[in-house]
Write a structure and sequence with these properties.
InterPro entries: YdcZ. It is built from 5 helices and no strands. By secondary structure, it is mainly α. The protein starts with a helix and ends with a helix.
């Protein structure tokens, strides 16, 4: 089952990169906010249908959730807007590696401090090295993108 979850997560990453690229291009014609709106509206319609036919939870449970847990919706929207802005400017790979770097940084803090009822996994030098390599990767990818862009415009 773990292998299946890894494959599903890999597929999620593939769709996220494809979505970023398509939305970045689309935003040049429709605008950043409008592109994000279309994505959210489409997601609302799609998920409403899924909830109606396949939902097994308690939709009204949203009303009893702590306010801090509801912030996830705003965080997701913020992520989407930022990626739609970034992709046309720095490219898909630079955007996604930067996103992953940000995810790693906050994930290390969440694990270390046990925020949001997560497991406590202490910060160590291996995690610091991984984070440093990700930041270096973002730098080199961005520099390569800039060079390729300048060469294409020459």
């Amino acid at each position: 089952m773990d292998i299946l979850m890894i494959l599903f997560t890999l597929l999620g990453g593939i769709t996220l990169s494809a979505q970023s690229s398509v939305q970045g291009t689309f935003s040049r014609k429709a605008g950043t906010i409008e592109t994000t709106f279309l994505t959210m509206l489409t997601g609302l319609v799609f998920l409403t249908i899924i909830v109606i036919f396949f939902g097994q939870g308690n939709v009204l449970g949203i009303l009893s959730a702590p306010v801090w847990q509801l912030s996830a919706a705003f965080l997701g929207t913020g992520f989407l807007i930022l990626s739609v802005i970034a992709v046309p400017r720095i490219g898909v790979i630079a955007t996604n590696v930067a996103v992953i770097s940000g995810q790693l940084a906050i994930s290390m803090m969440i694990d270390h401090f046990g925020w949001f009822d997560s497991l406590v996994i202490s910060f160590d030098w291996k995690r610091l090295a991984a984070m440093l390599f990700m930041i270096i990767a973002v730098f080199f990818i961005y520099q390569g993108n800039k060079r390729s862009s300048m060469e294409a415009n020459s």
